Amino acid sequence: MSSAASMSKFLTQVKVTMAPFAPASKSSKIFLSRIITNDAIAANPTLKIVTESHADLNKPPVINVTYKDGKTLQLQTGDMKVNDVLRQVGKHARKLQEKEDASA
Predict the structure, then answer these.
(1) pLDDT band for position 86 (50/70/90)?
(2) How far is Cα 97 from Cα 17, in angstroms, rounded to an integer?
(3) Is residue 2's pLDDT more than 60?
(4) Interhelix angle for 26-35 vs 82-103, to 10°?
(5) DSSP annotation string for 48-89
(6) pLDDT tens column, 44-78
């Protein structure tokens, strides 16, 4: 899956919980910036994006993803690079894309 826009087609909800000014939240913030684009919104206008912020700099940032088939994924992204986050989220989305391509 080459882009967050094509990946977002297979997501129903993305929930990000983080301390926005904590250095550990960098990957979560960049992930959000890749998911909230015009292309991603055009690919899936019903995608629900929820952000929750808190002031606890020691609490790890968490991304919860719900896919169209009901599967959920929870990532603690404090030690992850944004490409690793995108790869993890995109892994199941690629499976859904392959399933859709096979049935077409």
Answers:
(1) very high
(2) 27
(3) no
(4) 30
(5) EEEEEE-S-TTSPPEEEEEETTS-EEEEE-TT--HHHHHHHH
(6) 999 999 999 999 999 999 999 999 999 999 999 99
Burial class (CB in 10 A: 0-12, 13-18, 19+), 41: middle
Strand partners, 74: 64
Question: Please, what is the Cα angle at 51 between 28 and 27, to 5 degrees?
Answer: 5
Q: Are 86 and 34 in contact (CB under 8 A)?
A: yes
Query: 16, 73 in Cβ contact below 8 A?
Result: no
How crowded is residue 7: how many other Cβ atoms within 10 Å of its Cβ? Answer: 26
- How far out from the chain centre does Cα 97 lie? 16
pTM over 0.90: yes
